[in-house]
Amino acid sequence: MDGAEPYVDFDRVEKSFRAKGGKVVALEALSMSIDQGEFVAIVGPSGCGKSTLLLALAGLTTPTSGAVRLEGATVAGPVVDAGVVFQNAELLPWRTALENVLLQAEVRKLSKAEYTERARQLLADVGLAGFEDHYPDELSGGMQQRVSLCRALLHDPSILLMDEPFGALDAITRDQVQMDLQSLWLKSRRTVLFITHSIEEAVFLADRVIVLSPRPATIAADIRVDMSRPRHVSDRGAAEFTAYVNEIREEFGKLGIFSDRDPAGGGEE
Ligand SMILES: Nc1ncnc2c1ncn2[C@@H]1O[C@H](COP(=O)(O)OP(=O)(O)OP(=O)(O)O)[C@@H](O)[C@H]1O
Ligand SMILES: [Mg+2]
Hints:
Elements: E1 8-19, E2 22-34, E3 39-43, H1 50-58, E4 65-70, E5 73-74, E6 82-85, H2 97-107, H3 112-125, H4 141-153, E7 159-163, H5 171-188, E8 191-195, H6 199-205, E9 208-212, E10 219-224, H7 239-254
Helix pairs in contact: 2-3, 2-4, 4-5, 6-7
The structure holds adenosine-5'-triphosphate and magnesium ion (MG).
């Protein structure tokens, strides 16, 4: 990369779907860029087009017009150098934690033997040493989501795409996996696009929080979070943290969205 080209570039991306009642426009003339190594969180009302945006970057859906570029090249099919994590861990129930992580090597036809050590290390990094041979139904929701995260990272992707990965977890588990994600991220500083319903989660994790408008999604605000790292759970009580959260709530307020509470209906604190 020559530095002039943004690492990720959404260039007037529009995505519409044919629906029963006519056309549904999910994204409209959406333009934004992300620098390499940046941790960007996307928040926005339900149904506004967040998942569509992530799938367009992953190359799993094609824009109706406009283009998504990664390192200067238009995304035209599934992005091989990406890791994706969805809301549900999507583990195969008949495979152990380790085997689920190694699935990534299998589908990519990489040597399993070569990746086994890395898989074990990743599991250990997220506190799952000793659980390698457990099956998903023997793991808690938080542990399953950690396995899913390890699977997404096994091939050392240069970009990590996460679609509400912690949405189904209880508040305490969620705090823990956020810390795990932060420490993994601090080790490698990969580019991350992280979708969440939780303003607190976005502020806690991200370098930048992008607020999307109701559908069709356009960028309503783009807020830089200048807080030092590593961030700690106790930082959520800091005035600085609260100020960011309030600033983003106000942006939701300007969009006419109920703003006295987290648009997800809470879940934290
Ligand atoms: N494959 C599809 N076919 C038809 N319509 C779709 C399709 N995918 C998304 N949509 C529509 O596009 C809009 C945006 O959907 P999307 O899933 O991107 O929203 P979202 O912001 O991720 O919502 P949520 O917060 O509930 O996950 C919605 O109106 C949805 O119904
Ligand atoms: Mg979604």
